[in-house]
Amino acid sequence: MKNLFFALFFLIALPVIASAQGVRGTIVDENGDPVPMAGIYLPSERTGTASNSEGKYEIPLSPGEYDLVFQSLGFRTRTFHLTIRKTWLDLDITMDPQSIQLREVVVNPSGEDPAYAIMRKAIGMAPYYLRQTNRYLADVYLKGSFRMDNIPRLLKNSLTISVNDVEAPLEEGRTYTMESMNEITFIAPDTFQHTVLASRSSFPAGDEATALGFINSSFYEPDNGMVISPLAPQAMRHYKFRYEGYFEDGDVEVNKIKVTPRRKSQQLVNGYIYIVQDLWNIHSLDVEAEMFFGDIRVKQVFQPVKEGVWLPVTHQFDLDVSMMGVKAVVDYSGSVKYKEVELNKELETPEILLAESEDSFSEDEEVTVTEEEEPSKEQKKLEALLAKEDLSNREMMQLARLMEKTSEKEEERQPADLELTSTYNMTVKKDSIKQDSAFWETRRPIPLTPLEQESYALGDSLAAVHAAKKDSAAGDVDGWLDKATGFATFGKRFFNGDSSVMVNYNGLIGLGNVNFNPVDGWNYKQSLSVFWKQDSVHRLELTPEAGYAFSRDELMWKVKARQTYAPLLRGEVSMGAGDETSDFKSSGIAVNSWVDMVASLAFKENYKRYFGRRFVEVSNALDLANGLRWDVSAAYEWMTPRLNNSNYSFFHRDKDYHSNIPENDILFFHNLEEQESFSWGTTISYTPRYFYRIHKGRKIMSHSDYPTFSVSVKQGIQAFDSSADYLFFEGGVEHEKDAGFFPVLSWAANGGWFARNEAMHFSHFKHFNSSAVPVRITGSPAFRLLDDYEASTNEWYLQGHLKYTSPYLLLKRLPVLSNRLWQESLHFDYLHTPGFRNYTQVGYSIDQILLMGSIGVFAGFEDGEYKHWGVSAVLDF
Q1: CA nearest neighbour of 352 among 373, 382, 372, 394
Q2: Does a structural domain hold residue 229?
Q3: Beta-carbon contacts of residue 587 (< 8 Å; ≥ 6 apart)
Q4: How far apart are CA 128 and CA 134, in angstroms?
Q5: 77 and 154 fall within a common domain
Q6: Distance between CA atoms of 235 and 240, rounded to whole angstroms?
Q7: CB 49, CB 445: distance < 8 Å
Q8: What is the spatial distance between Cα 784 and Cα 801, in angstroms, rounded to a whole number?
Q9: Count of structural domains within the chain
Q10: DSSP state letters, 768-788
Q11: Which pTM does this prediction carry?
Q12: Residue 488 — φ and ψ, nearest 5°?
């Protein structure tokens, strides 16, 4: 028995005993105050870690000899040679203030600060350092803490956390913690394979992908989707730089550069960036930015992990949230251990960097020597620019272009494959969340603070409460009634045993269930969706819907089905039938029903016009080749005119609604009368060099740098009992770009001609995206001052749209507005029909207000003569 107890004790204690050595201590300044997030780097292990917010550090190490480098911004770097035995080595560190020296500089006749010469070299070299590494394999430890300092009363009952599958209210002042051990494989230019080796969390949302995205991003990138980098080619337009001296760090001199935005903007950072002299790479940085949701502060420390290769080894990301009464603090810290680093062999290293690398590394380090080749013309220009002491802005841009051109040679030699592989893949190792505290104690490179340790105790207590509630849940009648009530009211999703079939019911209450218009009056509908996943690439969707128009006292219904096939050709066939009240315009360009309902009930303004439509339709779409799409459809419709049946409104009870007859000068009674129509149509569209992804066996289109060309034909045929007789040809080209930090130009042009229009319903006219409604729900190109149907035609048309979008155009140059994440746009729209001769619309708008809205002022002209003006707003959900 004694031997059994001894064996059990040995097995339990073995993990602790096996790794119970290393170095630990506290890092303080000269006044004895802790130095949080001080970087600790082990050159032999190519790994970095950091102290916690209390200045404590702890590094598990195997017995042996190590060099430890302690560094923190504002303090002198300290290096220690240590011998680790089989016990912990306690080593407290006192950091001395960094002495900043001023070098002798040649005074520029223009009085320009020396920082600009340094930053021009660094900006010019940024494309090189961005592409210097072809691949690396690294272990990343990530730790985050989260604390809510203030929760508005309205949100206190709705904000919860899920710990160990247990829901609990989010508490003010409590610290929540997460940590994870990850393996990251990077493959140039932008592919990351993320494997979660172990994770532990008491976060409200235990997803560290956002923080890892920050760690994986690079300040060598011109922009990372949030801010413009101080090393972007256009940085001189956005930032001012001030030289504050240099200090020595080992064998290199490091320049301290103050970065200040030229204007107040949420897209710009301020703080310090440290540039290595003669190498012109980042040594470290400490910058912050003011966002609409709060303040962000970023700290990074770089180290030479391989000959001439400086990569970040410690990260700190702090966020102070203050928005709509919510106040919270989020802190992330990370340490990186590079296990493998592979250089981009196709990238030519500038001679000046080769010389510096040879001087920086000791003789016993391996230096790769290659046969000398005759430098190219571009390489000679590049070397000449690097050799200059002071670069002009023009030379800086030239250097950056040459460096980028040189570094992209490898990409140019690769085959022009349009298939994109996923740039970020995450896998979670089995049992990664089941690691116990002993595992973390032996592998955690950044110690937990007492508050962070306390947060993990929360999960254990919640788990115990959950187990007790689970035992008493059986037979809980009140709980069953609550679930039934919730299902009936708000809806629910149901799955069969293998989850191949999903039924989604929207419930009795929902924004899409109730609507109002003068034709139907109040109407109410119910719908559900059935999704049958036949295999990994084929799916059938069935959507039945039924409603009731109270003022017309009639039932409305429709059902649609869509079956996917040929997944690599994006094939899909659709069928539908129904009896409904329909707008004369298609849904893509018609006024949103909710906007029209609000306008009707609040202002007695009805913009939409309706008719009765019973229909049977079928369509098919397929890729004939990559970027070449073919759509074909056919429909049989029974169309009837409808009148207003309700004059209800919240206000303006003595005012009548507008007639349900569209206002159009070429509209005749026979275009609105009861009739049957059989029609078919087909469209061919082509987008050159259309990039795509293959996801789970299905093709998903991504983007193209080229415009999309399209031609289509639609015909109404006198077959069966159909009276339709028309033939319409249409063609166009469009090029749309997403707005970012830099100006973009989007445009479209198309035209159409009715070769025959003997008999056709008004719904088959060519309609345009036009409406004088002051608020729209789509930001697509539109004629915002024309009435909904006045420009519709059954003869011919030409139209064009031009939109120039920039982050800084007019109003955002004002200091009071420069800090907004808005975009500014100039609009030019053109329409030419028999009824509208050379109608043009020009406008200016502010976009991305709260990331989803815009407002602008527009003016319309016909044949060069002023016609009208107005203000238009968009809520682009």
Answers
A1: 382
A2: yes
A3: none
A4: 12
A5: no
A6: 9
A7: yes
A8: 12
A9: 3
A10: -SB---SEES--SS-BSSS-S
A11: 0.72
A12: -65, -35
pLDDT at 7 over 60: no
Asked whether the beta carbons of 808 and 760 are under 8 A apart, the reply is no
Distance of alpha carbon 196 from alpha carbon 235, whole angstroms: 36
Burial 37-68 (b: 16+ CB within 10 A, else e): bbbbbbbeebbbbbbbbbbbbbbbbeeeebeb
Do 52 and 173 share a domain, yes or no?
Answer: no
pLDDT digits (tens, 9 = 90+) for 545-592: 999 999 999 999 999 999 999 999 999 999 999 999 999 998 788 899
Reported as a single tens digit per residue, the pLDDT across 475-502 is 455 555 555 566 666 777 888 877 789 9
Residue 623 above 80 pLDDT? Answer: yes
- Tens digits of residue pLDDT in 266-280: 889 999 999 999 999
Helix (H) or strand (E) holding 326, with range, is strand 326-343
Average pLDDT over residues 782-811: 93
In this structure, are residues 349 and 329 in contact, taking their beta carbons and an 8 Å threshold?
no
Same domain, 569 and 657: yes
Query: Among positive and negative, which fits the CA dihedral 838, 844, 848, 850?
Result: negative
CB of 716 within 8 A of CB of 637?
no
Question: What pairing do the DSSP bridges indicate for beta strands 744-759 and 775-776?
Answer: unpaired
Query: Phi, psi at residue 382, to the nearest 5°?
Result: -60, -45
For residue 515, tell me if it sits in a domain.
Answer: no
Evaluate whether residue 364 is within a structural domain: no
Q: Directed axis angle between helix 393-407 and helix 115-130, to 10°?
A: 10
The answer on 705 and 655 residing in a single domain is yes
Helix (H, G, I), strand (E, B) or coil at 552: coil
Contacts of 206 (CB under 8 A, 6+ apart): 178, 199
Measured distance CA(455)–CA(178) in Å, rounded: 9
Residue of 22, 334, 24, 318 lying closest to 180 (CA atoms): 334
Q: Tens digits of per-residue pLDDT, 29-66?
A: 999 999 888 888 888 888 778 888 888 998 888 899 99
Determine the Cα–Cα distance for residues 630 and 564; give it in Å rounded to an integer.
15
- Residue 738: pLDDT above 90? no
Average pLDDT of every residue of the chain: 83
Range of the domain at 342: 115-359+377-411
> Are the C-beta atoms of residues 794 and 754 closer than 8 Å to each other?
yes
Residues 67 and 136 in one domain: no
Using CA atoms of 770, 776, 777, 783 in order, give the dihedral in degrees to the nearest 10. Answer: 30
Cβ pair 424, 192 in contact under 8 A: yes
Query: What is the per-residue pLDDT across 223-253, written as a single tens digit (0 to 9) for each?
Result: 766 788 999 888 888 899 999 999 988 889 9
Is the CA virtual torsion 302, 305, 310, 311 positive or negative?
Answer: negative
Q: Are residues 206 and 279 in the same domain?
A: yes
d(CA 754, CA 713): 10
CB 459 within 8 A of CB 202: yes
CATH code, domain carrying 723: 2.40.160
